[in-house]
């Protein structure tokens, strides 16, 4: 358990990032990009995301409102921004790196109920703010620099206790150990002039709660004009050199290159007093730049058959496909196929695709379309990757269309099905609290030698992140495996990976490999899938008798 003690001698550096004017300015990406450059310069960097909402975690949140729920290795269900930090910084984070109002209040209220406050009146200041500061310090432990991003916009009621905590935090640390960065919008007037007034107002709001930004980053279509920078500097009381641009770039992976070009990383190191400890420029890690600027030869079209017509709802899948594309040297275009409307409208798009991905999900809406898409991929030898619900629907498709059990289904989607190929395990039926049966986080899978799964992973085991309740029904395995489908990865009686033996690439995983994919370490199932799309991998030609056993 975390302690309330803190050693002020540790000398860590903190970068606090707030947002102004409006949300959705990409301050997380700017922060993660700055962190990446510090890492390239030899520093150990971590990040904390503060989400001022009242939810304890993102587990119950609808992807339509908040984008995908990202899963960490310890099973924490968190905001998708943590995925960006993991991908940009190349680190594995934990539940402690996502602080929410719900989490903090729950802890403080529990302590109050336990009598830990010894009869004191429990208040936002100091009890909640102390708890927030403790969490930040603990998450930063063992690193050189910790980036703390406050979600939302300055002025939101919910973020007040967090901003007050940051104010206290800064005054408790040594001068020069904490930097405040404020990211705002710089809009254009009708005649194309960059307007600084919203930034000025937003900084005024920050100052009214005792925070003076050290660095301002202006989000605009183009770079900020020198005159715009000067004006912001003058009105916000920072040197000209502390104002940076954050213009549009073709892809978020280009943001670190842009931040470097602007010199934000150097300025941060200078202000934090760590410039002398940074690696000389010629010795810095250059892999990121090489990866994102490498030549691509051609492109492929991948159908993503899901129910949320919102890119953020499948963010990690988009990213994982991109990583596989980087490794294979091709661009990956995603053709969105709405599983709800697939049969009427989107079938053509499926046919235009070079490969089909069916992602995870909950609930029955759109599952008919997903099953049809899987059938199409299976019958036409089109490479297929099924993830979690997509894996489960591949089992249902096999039972219905290959084994002839027309009513086969998942008990989650049709509790009355006479042939529940996907079901809760018996012990799970005993736990009825909502969420109580969810299997979360990193678990090991044993992989059979000589299978496509082994070829994909290059190993006979893998560790991937999970988020599901239902499993392949262990009583039906023999029949399910009787016509070319094979469960090539298992965790005791849980089926983790499936493949077809007479198809170029038909691969499903009960886990979510997308959460471990990184720009410089593409996820094996995504890489295998893309190689199959490019004709470089064919399960039928693995040259191993056991594959077709
Ligand atoms: N709804 C399915 C289950 O709970 C799949 C979950 C998912 O795709 N993340 O098992």
UniProtKB/TrEMBL annotation:
Enzyme Commission numbers on file: 6.3.4.2
Entry binding sites for L-glutamine: 64, 361, 389-392, 412, 469
Pfam families for the chain: CTP_synth_N (PF06418), GATase (PF00117)
UniProt superkingdom: Archaea
GO biological process, one term: pyrimidine nucleobase biosynthetic process
A single Gene Ontology CC term: cytoophidium
Annotated spans, Amidoligase domain: 1-274
CDD domains, per database record: CTPS_N, GATase1_CTP_Synthase
Database matches in PROSITE patterns: GATASE_TYPE_1
Binding site for UTP: 23, 195-200, 231
Residue ranges of domain Glutamine amidotransferase in the record: 310-531
Record keywords, A-Z: ATP-binding, Glutamine amidotransferase, Ligase, Magnesium, Metal-binding, Nucleotide-binding, Pyrimidine biosynthesis
Residues at the active site: 388, 512, 514
Domain CTP synthase N-terminal: 13-274
UniProt GO molecular function: ATP binding; CTP synthase activity; glutaminase activity; identical protein binding; metal ion binding
Binding-site list for Mg(2+): 81, 149
Function field: Catalyzes the ATP-dependent amination of UTP to CTP with either L-glutamine or ammonia as the source of nitrogen. Regulates intracellular CTP levels through interactions with the four ribonucleotide triphosphates.
Note: CTPSs have evolved a hybrid strategy for distinguishing between UTP and CTP. The overlapping regions of the product feedback inhibitory and substrate sites recognize a common feature in both compounds, the triphosphate moiety. To differentiate isosteric substrate and product pyrimidine rings, an additional pocket far from the expected kinase/ligase catalytic site, specifically recognizes the cytosine and ribose portions of the product inhibitor.
Homology family: Belongs to the CTP synthase family.
Subunit structure: Homotetramer.
Protein name in the entry: CTP synthase
Gene source species: Haloferax volcanii (strain ATCC 29605 / DSM 3757 / JCM 8879 / NBRC 14742 / NCIMB 2012 / VKM B-1768 / DS2) (Halobacterium volcanii)
């Amino acid at each position: 358990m975390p302690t309330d003690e803190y050693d002020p001698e540790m000398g860590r550096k903190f970068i606090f990032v707030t947002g102004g004017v409006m949300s959705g300015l990409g301050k997380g990406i700017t922060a993660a990009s700055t962190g990446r450059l510090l890492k390239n310069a030899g520093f150990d960097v971590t990040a904390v995301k503060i989400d001022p909402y009242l939810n304890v975690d993102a587990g119950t949140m609808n992807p339509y409102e908040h984008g995908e729920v990202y899963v960490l290795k310890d099973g924490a269900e968190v905001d998708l921004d943590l995925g960006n930090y993991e991908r940009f910084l190349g680190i594995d984070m934990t539940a402690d790196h996502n602080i929410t109002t719900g989490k903090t209040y729950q802890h403080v209220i529990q302590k109050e109920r336990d009598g830990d406050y010894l009869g004191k009146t429990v208040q936002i200041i100091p009890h909640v703010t102390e708890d927030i500061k403790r969490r930040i310090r603990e998450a930063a432990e063992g690193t050189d620099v910790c980036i703390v991003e406050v979600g939302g916009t300055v002025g939101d009621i919910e973020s007040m206790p967090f901003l007050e905590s940051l104010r206290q935090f800064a005054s408790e640390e040594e001068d020069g150990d904490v930097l405040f960065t404020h990211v705002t919008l710089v809009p254009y007037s009708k005649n194309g002039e960059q307007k600084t007034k919203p930034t000025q107002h937003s900084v005024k709001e920050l100052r009214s709660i005792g925070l003076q930004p050290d660095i301002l980053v202006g989000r605009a279509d183009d770079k900020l004009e020198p005159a715009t920078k000067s004006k912001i500097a003058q009105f916000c009381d920072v040197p000209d050199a502390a104002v940076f641009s954050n213009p549009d770039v073709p892809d978020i992976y280009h943001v670190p290159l842009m931040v470097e070009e602007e010199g934000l990383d150097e300025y941060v190191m200078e202000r934090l007093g760590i410039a002398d400890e940074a690696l000389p420029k010629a010795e810095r890690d250059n892999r990121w730049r090489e990866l994102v600027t490498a030549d691509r030869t051609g492109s492929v079209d991948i159908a993503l058959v899901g129910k949320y017509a919102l890119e953020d709802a499948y963010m990690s899948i988009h990213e994982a496909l991109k990583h596989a594309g980087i490794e294979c040297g091709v661009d990956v275009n995603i053709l969105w196929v709405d599983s709800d409307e697939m049969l009427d409208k989107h079938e053509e798009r499926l046919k235009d695709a070079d490969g089909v991905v069916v992602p995870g999900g909950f609930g029955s809406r759109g599952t008919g379309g997903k099953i049809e898409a899987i059938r199409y991929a299976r019958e036409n030898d089109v490479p297929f990757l099924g993830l979690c619900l997509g894996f489960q629907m591949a089992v249902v498709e096999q039972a219905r269309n290959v084994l002839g059990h027309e009513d086969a289904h998942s008990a989650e989607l049709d509790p009355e099905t006479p042939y529940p190929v996907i079901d809760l395990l018996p012990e799970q039926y005993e736990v009825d609290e909502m969420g109580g049966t969810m299997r979360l986080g990193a678990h090991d899978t044993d992989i059979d030698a000589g299978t496509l799964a082994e070829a994909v992973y290059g190993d006979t085991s893998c560790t991937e992140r999970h988020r599901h309740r239902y499993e392949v029904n262990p009583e039906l395995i023999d029949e399910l495996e009787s016509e070319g489908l094979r469960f090539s990865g298992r965790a005791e009686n849980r089926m983790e990976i499936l493949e077809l033996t007479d198809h170029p690439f038909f691969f499903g995983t009960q886990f979510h490999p997308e959460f471990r994919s990184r720009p410089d370490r593409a996820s094996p199932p995504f890489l295998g899938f893309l190689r199959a799309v490019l004709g470089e991998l064919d399960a039928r030609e693995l040259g191993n008798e056991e594959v077709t056993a």
